[in-house]
Amino acid sequence: MADLPNCPACNSAYTYEDGSLLICPECGNEWTPGPGSDNGEDTKTIKDANGNVLTDGDTVLVIKDLKVKGSSSVLKMGTKVKNIRLVEGDHDIDCKIDGFGAMKLKSEFVKKA
Question: Of 34, 41, 78, 90, which residue is most buried, by most CB within 10 angstroms?
Fold first, then answer.
């Protein structure tokens, strides 16, 4: 068997390659192997407007009025956004906002609550 790293989620030794992904058959975790990192963690940290590190599941507040693209409504300053998910890209926060639905936000326009 090849020298594949253990699963970062359950530490199983039964991982296998599928294209560019590594897969754990015991817990179903999929990850891409990084150079020199066996834990599958991203090195990029996403910070809010005040420099606090954001994580999945955090609650944030919008710090300025934001126009909603494709709509005439505005997301008001002080709107609380619960249970955020961090994603790759320009708009690095994926969330659902009551009254607006699913949207993506930039971390520079929010602060950790």
Answer: 34
